[in-house]
Predict the 3D structure of the following.
Amino acid sequence: MAKEKASKTRTEEMHRRLRGDILGGRLVPGARLKFPELCENYGVSVGAAREALTRLAAEGLVKSQAHQGYMVTPLSHEDLADLTRARVEIESLVLRMSVLEGDVHWESRAIAAHHVLERAPFLSDDDPDHPTYEWEVAHAAFHMALIDGCTNRRLLDAARSLRDEAELYRQWSVSLGQEPDRDLPGEHRALLDATVGRNADLAAHLLRDHIAHTAQLLISVATDEPLAAAEERSNG
């Protein structure tokens, strides 16, 4: 029993660290994830590494290819466009259902999550090109809270998975604060007001625009196929 518990703990730690390295941009999208290197770098067994990779694949952060092993999910402008179309349709549907089905406890969680987001520092002097980790966590929690009133767990899980994939692109890009004319806090406030005001049509419309606008910004500032770009820089 103790041995099984220790193995589970190592797998959890491996999953947490590898997920953090992927979302933190320390592992380039498209990079191969080789078991010998993973086991050495993270100090785990092949079994723990394989289980962690299986979980990350289910989250959309890594991909498995026959006879080629695992890699960090490759990114490109084309893939981001496909992901955005899926998110716009599914996430807006789930938000609509959340507005129609959510109870007062769901409302309170959404309001509380927005309260935290409003007070999270957006940029820091240490890294003015990306939102702070505190803001990123609060931002993800707010959007998850909005859709958490949906009672269809399959649709909710699909929306959550797509948001996880979108985080890769957020890390791949420059700061969302590079648009001086965009009122990002205002967009979040309008989303909350429409949601807790039970205006399903408006909430879904605002979310569609919010997702599409962010994707357009990422495409405009992010290099297509980051692994190829990184290799070109290293060879240059």
User: Anything to note?
Assistant: The radius of gyration is 19 Å. The longest strand covers residues 62-65. The CA atoms of residues 89 and 130 lie 27 Å apart.
